[in-house]
Amino acid sequence: TRRGLLLASAATLLSPRASALAGPRKPNIIVIYADDLGYGDVGCYGSKTIQTPNLDRLAARGTRFVNAYSTSATCTPSRYSLLTGDYAWRASGTQILPGDAPAIIRPGRFTLPSMLKQAGYATGVVGKWHLGLGDGKVDWNGEIAPGPLDIGFDYGFYMPATLDRVPTVLIENRRVVNLDPADPIRVDYKAKVGDEPTGFDNPDLLKFRGDPEHSNTIHNGISRIGYMTGGKAARWTDEDLTDVLLGKAVEFVTARKGAPFFLYFAMNEPHVPRAPHPRFVGKSGMGPRGDTIVQLDWTVGELVRKLEELGVADDTMIVFSSDNGPILFDGYEDQAVEKAGDHRMAGPYRSGKYAIYEGGTRVPMIVTWPGNARAGHVSQAMLSHVDLLASLAGLVGQPLPADQAVDSFDLRAAFLGQSEKGRDHVVQDTKLMVTTGTTVASSGARILALRAGDWKFIRGSVEPHEFHGNQIGTLPRHQLYNLARDPGERDDVAAKVPDRTRQMAAWLDKIERD
Ligand code: NG6
Ligand code: CA
User: Fold this and answer.
1) Tell me, what's the ipTM?
2) The whole model's pTM is what?
3) CA spacing 20 to 30 A to 380: which of 193, 234, 347, 446?
């Protein structure tokens, strides 16, 4: 297996799959996954501008990680890795998906939810899906399958893709919620369907303007990527969406509080379009981007409060993190750039979303579990979201099939703040979208980097170096940084330390091959 080869690799001492913690435990597990939240966007990670008292409280009660990574600098691949335990770059088709893309995690696959279901958990997903639905043509007006229910979730209440992509409707299990059969949904990413206004033709109807990619069908005063028509009664209201999702998350945990439950709560903040509920408008002083982070923080606080009220807080492990780094402008003129001031959304790290630099994948991560996750601890252990599957399997006592979750290590002691020994290396990944006219083709090549200890190697690549104002980190030659001395990746030492550059290039090649 790939894992066998990895373990046999002489290049380094790898973290063992087996961990020191004995005996299976089955706490409730909630993974709260924010969308585009940066390392520096959270109070306990150093944000001086945006206040996140609820996240800070979580950190005070649990362990806060400073070397935690999402696997990729964009959403779909990060979520793919989180749920499968494989690096997304091992599979094709794992780049940012349109809203009508087929399901990329195929039915029956071993996944985080299927593993926990096997262990006796009630499993649910609430929020952003963005991993594709159906087999090639989704029937928005009928049974939507395959989807979350075919890869291990018992329950799903979710958006097909992103806030900025059609269809702007919610799906419960296999059906669009509130769909009026007399008003069927049609979706098209290439050509206009129906006669609804678009951002191109009716900019007067917009709350804020979108760039050409975000100028298709207008819903709720916001032009989206892609065209849709119909399904009027089923469409979400952006300002209310987080409250709706929180309501469903609370319903799920309330109904399942007797059994161990697993909830994947995939929140949208602070992804674009940023349209917070009116009660959060102006609360951050940083415009809609900051306000949605305040909304996120409040919502996490409410969920925790609800767990306490239900009497299950002590038996619940919460993993809070983000799918990729931050970005200011991501398609809409929403004042994020103008109001950023000296806020450092990625903290000390360079760039953010889409980047192969640290800002792309070094994300905030907080783990709480009263009496089990070390309280008030700041852990240096290097962990990737891809490790969650093997770590939780270890915790609940489920075996891992030898050929599944090949990149996932059982680091449960580290996840609980009980050990500082995490991974000794992690692969970082991004893939740029190539825009042609109004369509975003995904023909960009994978860009990979390898971090091991203090060293960060970025493989040379000819992809563009900038996207939406974030520097991606691509150069036609290899780069090498010493993160201990140079966390901001400013001083490329590849030419000064050629041996290490060569060694890490070969190591990355080997991980990719194996
Ligand atoms: C990009 C969109 C961006 C955002 C992103 C997905 C353009 C030019 N940009 O293609 O606005 O939607 O996809 O973000 O269309 S993610 O967090 O889900 O990966
Ligand atoms: Ca994201």
Assistant:
1) 0.96
2) 0.95
3) 446
